[in-house]
Design goal:
Blueprint lengths: L6 E2 L7 E4 L4 E8 L6 H13 L6 E11 L1 H15 L7 E8 L4 H14 L4 E4 L7 H11 L1
Parallel strand pairs: 3-4, 4-5, 5-6
Antiparallel strand pairs: 1-2, 2-3
Length: about 140
């Protein structure tokens, strides 16, 4: 599951998670794992460690095809952890990608942004487009 290069491979029930050394975290795909899954535990452990070793600017790209209620709560919990880096002076950018016309996905992103009291950047996209290029542009603007 968690590979040494900082990547969790996508499955039918889990998104691909990529941890890039330049501070970009990508979450892309479906998220339908069961309660207390190995996947959720591995992510939680990684985030617990990462917050103490974060780059100066961290960008999280979230592009979920679908997610169930339990995993929405898990995502909120993980994002709450990463918000901690802002207390140490690091900059956090959260990009929420959604397909044009998918109001449910867009609304979910808005709800999570409101719950966390943290602004997200919303970007219309297709799930086949790479997210890294968009984020690299955003990181350059943030510097």
């Amino acid at each position: 599951m968690l590979l040494s290069d900082g990547k969790i491979l996508r499955t039918d029930k889990t998104p691909e998670i990529a941890f890039h050394p330049n501070g970009i975290i990508t979450i892309k795909g479906p998220w339908l794992v069961d309660y207390n899954s190995e996947f959720s535990k591995a992510l939680s452990d990684w985030f617990d460690t990462y917050i103490f070793h974060a780059t100066e600017i961290v960008a999280i790209n979230i592009s979920l095809e679908y997610i169930n209620g339990f995993n929405s709560a898990t995502l909120i919990s993980l994002l709450r952890k990463i918000l901690f880096i802002q207390l140490t002076g690091n900059k956090l950018i959260i990009n929420w990608f959604y397909e044009e016309g998918d109001e449910d996905n867009y609304g979910l992103g808005e709800n999570i942004s409101d719950i966390l009291e943290t602004p997200f950047t919303f970007k219309k996209s297709t799930f086949n487009k790479p997210l890294l290029e968009y984020t690299n542009i955003r990181l350059k603007k943030a510097i």
